[in-house]
Amino acid sequence: MNSFATAAEMAAAIRRKTLSATELVTLTLQRIERVNPDVNAIVGNMREAALARAADADRALADGHDLGPLHGVPVTIKESFAYRGTPNTWGLPNLEHAMSPRTARAIERLESAGAIVVGKTNVPVMLADWQSYNSIYGTTNNPWDLSRSPGGSTGGGAAAVATGMGAVTMGSDLSGSIRIPAHFCGVYGHKPSLDLVSMDGFQPGPWDGSPGPPMDLAVVGPIARDARDLALTLGAIGGSSGDAERAWTWRTPPPRHTRLQDFRIGCVVDDPIAPIASDVRKPYETLIAALDKAGVKITHGWPAGVDLRAAADTYGYLLMSFVTADLSPRDEAKSTGSTGKAFDHARWLRETLRRLAYRALWQKYFETHDVFLMPGSFTAAFPHDHTTPTERRVVETPEGKQPYVQHGAYWIFTASLSGLPATVAPIGRTDHGLPVGVQIVAPMWEDSTSIEFAALLSEVSGGFAPPPAYAE
Question: Which of 184, 246, 334, 425 has its CA 20 to 30 A from that of 60?
Fold first, then answer.
């Protein structure tokens, strides 16, 4: 079995008994031993547990039981998910030896669908960077150029998938933490609709099964080498959890179209508010030209009524409310410069109304359009830069230096603020050979629409290709 086979192909081969789950997991573990020292993507050794689960999967199949759509498929998960018997440190040294007694709900569902977790992947401290490094596990490298970042905060996961160390990885996305690594590493990534996948057990430190805090921006979701593996995984992990499971169930709404030329798309490939580096812009322009040639109906420009600066302000407020939620008024004032009243509940409600109005504006737009395309980031993968504070960092582009923090500004907040699903698909490379991905935003709950469009894009853009140094 090729290390770059899709999850669907792997599961099908196991069902046909072309190879066993044990053989496939063993091959994956051998590849990890060979490839991981270079990229340092996988930071948790789960060899014995993975082989034991593979043996269970083989026995189940021998007894006539199919465990689900991911039966026997090796996967990885972000270090930040609770997983029984392992730490979820979020890069904090004081949690290095704090083992979780429980597994996060999304990962439980992944395993219930037959997947076999072969390792945990690296993260930045508190998931707060577009690089993936910390004092516990070290630095993860981009497999296309080891001197560069794989993105963050799911950088370890994207690098693992790109190099064939598991078919799928589970990550999270608050400020592009799935989408930017997918763009940097040349793989597919999906930020699901808000609240589609349970985040219970996604926290620093051991998880005892208690509910997680309510989320208005953050989600968890998959990264894969094949777009339809995203849908396969999402179907396994999505839906209600806890008490809500008694009241309702979820199904994946079908994609609006199954032919590329039937899609009605909107697009923006650049904006003065966050200029795109010319080496990244070129693949976007090539893609739009190819779609136009294929007969796809294209509308250029932002939807009427979109005020990017106002929306960015709302996003920034809600983001800071989230990251300061556990601070005392004194700590909040120290970290934000506020008086301790800047993030009160009344203002949070007002900003939440603005967030929902922003979603409604986009939902109205999607009455006449099916998807909206925009860049995944203003640059391709940049060199490692651990300069502190973060505000001092800059990114070199052909047009000169740009602020590092611009990554977290205008190209990722639209889907985060609105709660809309967004899929990143690889569409080409820069002149220096670095991957470029396009971000595909779809209507609320219609995750299958952006994923299917991502899959169909391979007809004009080529889809995933392994990094040359790790293609075998």
Answer: 246
Question: Taking Cα atoms as reference points, which of 184, 172, 108 lies closest to residue 143?
Answer: 184
Query: Is 278 an active-site residue?
Result: no
Residue whose tokens read 């997680």: 212
| % of residues, the chain, pLDDT over 90 | 87
Are 211 and 349 in a shared domain?
no
Tokens encoding 82 = 């609770």
221/335 same-domain check: no
Number of CB atoms found within 10 A of residue 80's CB: 26
Catalytic: 177?
A: yes
Residues 6+ apart with CB under 8 A from 418: 355, 358, 359, 362, 444
Q: Which of 100, 177, 193, 461 is catalytic?
A: 177
In the set 153, 416, 448, 450, the catalytic residue is 153
pTM > 0.90: yes
User: Is the domain of 187 the same as that of 54?
Assistant: yes
**Among 16, 31, 120, 108, residue whose Cα is nearest residue 75:** 120
Q: Is 418 a catalytic residue?
A: no
Q: CA 251, CA 39: separation in Å to the nearest integer?
A: 37
- Say yes or no: 352 and 206 in one domain: no
Q: Given the DSSP bridges, would you call strands 435-441 and 371-375 parallel, antiparallel or unpaired? A: antiparallel
User: How far, in Å, CA of 419 to CA of 108, rounded?
Assistant: 24
Give CA–CA dist 350/361, Å, rounded. 17
C-alpha closest to that of 229 among 171, 177, 170, 167? 167
- Predicted confidence at residue 340, as pLDDT, reads 52
Q: Does 28 score more than 60 pLDDT?
A: yes
Q: Could you tell me if 141 and 213 lie in one domain? A: yes
Which residues, in sequence order, are CB contacts of 430 under 8 Å at separation 6+?
A: 279, 280, 282, 283, 380, 436
